Every structure is written in C-alpha cells, then in structure tokens.
Amino acid sequence: MNQASPAWQRTRRRARAVVVALVMLATAALLTAAPTASAHPVQSSKAFDPDEVGWGAVHGRTFADFQQDFAAYDKAGYLVVDLEADTFGGDLRVGAAFQYNTDKRGYLVKTRMTEADYAQWTEWADVHDFRMVDLEIYVLDGARHYAAAWVQNVEGLAGDDHHDLTYAQFVDYYEEQKRLGRMPVDFDAYQTAAGTRYALIWIDNPEHLGWRLHGDISETEYGQRFDEYRDAGLRPVVLDSVNGSSAGGAGQRYGGIWIENPNKRYWISNRDLTGPQYANRWHRNVDLGYRQIFTGRYQTAAGVRYAAIWRANTDRPAWPLRPGVDAKVDGLIGSTPGISVSVVRNGKAVYQRGFGHADVANGVWMDSDHVLRTASVAKAVAGILTLRLEEQGLLKRTDTVAGDMPGLPAQHGGTTYEQLVSNRGCVRHYANAGTDPAAAAADATMSTTDYATAGAAAPMFWADPLVPGCTVGMNDAYSTHGYTLAAAGMEAASGGTPVSLLLRQRLCDPLGLTTLRQEEPGDASVRRSKIYDGAAPVEVPRDEISWKTLGGGLETTPKDLTRLGSQLLAGAVLSPANVTYLWTGTGWGYAYGFGIGTESGHRRVAKNGSQRGADSFLLIYPDDGIVIAVMANRRAQGGGTAPAEAIANEIGKQMLAQLP
C-alpha cells in the first residue's frame, strides 16, 4: 500500500519512543475525536523499561497549571513519556507521565496545537531527528487540536504511524508492517462522526520481541486472549475499548497489544474500572511496588470506564514473605475498618500495604499514604527528638526542665528531660473522674481546646502532685502529661518556638518526613484516614490533641515511621553513640519512648499507641535492620493484644525466622 485515501492519515518518520504511561485520568465523556493515546515501554528497554526508575504523574490540569507542573518536572530532570489532553468537560485538561531522564536526551512537548501547528512541529521533529512518543487529538471550540510529545531518537529506530483508519485499513496496515519486521507499540480505537477509527504506531524490533495485536474483539474474546498470552509469557502494554466498532461488532469492543516479557518482571493489568475503583487500584498498585505504564479510559453503556497496566518498579512484588504477611494481616484485622503497614529492611522498603478502608462510607481503600494518628508512638518520636536537640546544642538530656522554665512548680525542680521522656518524672497520667474530679475536668478541657504551644497547655496540670509512691528518676510512672511538660521545656529552651515547629524544623524537614507532624485537623490538604470507634465501628469526630503533641498528638503514615526508624539505624538522625545510648545507655526497660527487650536472641525495641481513632505500633530490631510500622484507624477493642501490635509481632517473627 503506497497510496493512502484522504481518510487514512499517514506520517512517515522515525519511530516513536516506546515509553511508560503513568497518568491517572479524570472521569469524562467521550469525544467524537481520538481519545487519550499512550506510548509504551518496549524499545529501547534499557532506556524506557528499566527495572526501577523515578516516575511521577499529573492529571486533569488546566493548560496554565500543566505548564507549571511541566517546568517543575523538567527542572528536576524528568521528561514526559506519556501525555493526555481532552476537552471532555468542555475545557482543555492536560495530564502527563514523567520518567527520570536517565540518558539526558532532548524532548519536546506541545499540548495545544492547531492542524497547522501540528504540521509545523511534526516537520521540526523530523528535521531534528526526534520521534513522537504520544499523540492526542481533541476538539476545542469546534476545531480539531493536537497534543504531542517527542523525544530525541537516540536509538535511530525507524517506524511508521497512521490514524483515522477504518478496520479494513487497520488490517491491511497490520499486514504491511508485519512484513517489514516491525512491532506495534501504540493502539487506539476511538469514535468519530464517521464511526470507529483506529490509530497505530509501529517501530523497528531490534530486540526481536514476540508480540500480538488485536483491534476489534469482544469482551469475552479479550479475556480469553489475555489468559492465553499471559500463559505464553507475554504482557499487555496497551488496551483500548469502544462501544461498537467499524467491523460491525455489537456492544463493547476491545483491542490491545501484548509483547514478550523476557526478563519475566511482574506486571498487573486492570480494566473496566469505575472512577473510584480505578483510584483504589492505583494506590494499591503503588503500594505493591509497581509503576503505571499505561492508563486509558473509554465509554461504555454504563458510563466511562478505566484501564491500567503496571510494571514492577521495585523488588516488593517478589518479596518472599508477602503471601504469608498478607494472610496474617487478613486474619488479624478483625472488625478494624482499616490498617496500614510498612516494613523496611536495611533501608529498603520490602512491604507496603493497606487493608480495609480509610473511608468506609465512600468506599476508599486504606493505603500506606493515608495519614493516621500515631497515638503514643509519638513518645518514641519525642525520645529521638530529645537526643537530636542535644546534638544540635539546644539542651542537654540531663538538664532540668525547671532550668529552662524558672516558674515551674517546685515538685518538678529536679526533673530532667531524660526522665520525662522515659516516664520517670512521676507526672500524673489521665485522671479518674471518680477519684480526682478536678484533674479529670482539666483533662476534659484540654481534649476540647486548641493549644498553640505545649507551654500553654502544661499549666493545666503542672501544679498537680506527683504520683504517690513514685520517686523521680527511680520509678517508672507512665505519663502522657510528662511529655507535654518536656515539650514545654524544649519550647522555652528554644526561645519560644512551638514544639510543633521544633519537630518540623529540627527533625522532620531535614529527614524528608513530610507527613510526620502535629495533627492539624483544619489542614484539608492532608490525605487523612477517617477515624472510627466502637466494637461495631462508626465514624467519630476528632478530639483535640494539640495539648499532647509529643505524648500522643502526632500524625503520619507508616511509611514515614519506617523511614524515621531506618534513618535512625543508618546514623542519619543521631550520632552512633547516641543511637547506642538511646536503647542501652540508661539501663531501663523503658527509655526515650521505647520499650526495650529481646526476641529469640535479637534485640527488640518498640512502642505502642491507642487513642480515639488510632491503634499504632512501631517495632525495630536494631541489629537486624528491620523496622515495622502498623497503624489503624480505630483504637483496639477489648482485651488481648491490639491488632496493630499483633500484626507487627507476626511480621517480625516471620522476618526473624528467615534470617540466616
């Protein structure tokens, strides 16, 4: 076929880069023009299908917002590998997938081109030996527009492409390119005023990868082909679907490309998802350690549906303990609405997973990026912060808090920071209304009051007598209130900086712990889980916990808790001497917020936490490089071991058992 009809739009140029699609798409209606197209990770495999690579995505952005996104990613060394542009909602919306530009090749992105603009930039790309990686066709203000991305053709691959093909032309084109020894790398089916049309991009196949292409098959046949090709060692790289076809097939029709998977790296494919299902699967697959290589959406009789294909981007999918851990968590979660787990070994995340729901009413699955309350795990953070502030010259662990707060009541005059963050300050804990109604009333006031500083909250209890029978520095008396007193001293030592800022500026920001902070319920930008209470869990409002920032007022993700623990073991948080001191220097069984012990001959340190909407556990095996964090959105119910602790203990047990 050397001649093309006017309906068969053809541009011969060097072949398209075959790259990774990572974009989450927004829900939209179908246009009578080409929907989102995608480029795919086929060749060069080294550049565009590495085992692991930095990636990111934006979606549903206005033209102006996308320009800002693009500039930020470009500055960080990323290039666009997949582009989407549509006017489903009436105005132009743009999204893109970005992948780290490992070989620093040049690239070009244009998102709002007229027919004339497209012809001009296509010619520019041909002259400068750039190959197209994605083409979008959309209707804006009644006229066809284009968005496209090109990359420098470092590999020197030749190829071909067509769009606006009828199905008969699609078949002829398939046969032609197959004879030339090429392979398909992009397929799209879309509705136009003249009926269903198809677009294809082909590329040289120097790696001699096996492949399969289908353009117009039923849902049943697609499922059969999917299973057949999976069993034959092929993986999908693109999927598209339309309601009806130019070949006369009724109902929903499907097509796609499968290619050989020589390195046998894991992959996942999802199709026919609603918007909420797509969002849940998106976050789940990221947790599992995959990067998105294709995303699509298409119109069905039931509305817009989504498809996604994922490629393993870490070793997490192949972690040998994953099946056993999944099964144990499923068995231990009970009636807890949602639980999130993160596990790190020797600085590398080996497991991340959410179970249940972060928002039951709206069907939002829990994932490891949901922010949850730490409850008393905050005390372990406080212990680490205390030694870090000592290293930074703000205080000494043996300093008395009264030395920084001259007005402190006399009973606290000799109490040190170390004693307070190790539960040896003899400060009272929560009061019983039956035995101490005044103290219980003060606690109730604190739980409904927003405090700007720990120093503002501490006077509510600092005049109360010490715990009867407790000698400061000698006896262990568990006290959330004691951590607030320590926090007030830190604020005074810093010249009045609120402890929430001290934590952020002195610990979290330098370590990249972006979610670890004092809970601020009014900050709607935080992706929080809902919180629940009761044996038959119901959503409950948040109580005020700003009074106890270091004793139980923090929020974070389990991922950031394990990052903190792994960086602590690596020497990035405290000096080696202070890491040793943290868990051995005092000789106490509880020190600096951690319970200290052994398990099967391995050193073990841990902290639990429970409060309204929270059941949390942090477990570290210092000599084995193991850090485990489990966080739930309901406090433990009844007796026995809390679910978060039981899950962490079981994971730890399995990991210790497989050590050499």
UniProtKB/TrEMBL annotation:
Residues 1-39 form the signal peptide. Residues 326-638 form the Beta-lactamase-related domain. This is Beta-lactamase-related domain-containing protein. Keywords: Signal. It comes from the Bacteria. SUPFAM superfamilies: beta-lactamase/transpeptidase-like. InterPro entries: Beta-lactam-related, Beta-lactam/transpept-like, Diverse_Enzym_Activities, PGH-like_rpt. Transmembrane segments: none annotated. PANTHER family: BETA-LACTAMASE FAMILY PROTEIN (AFU_ORTHOLOGUE AFUA_5G07500), BETA-LACTAMASE-RELATED.
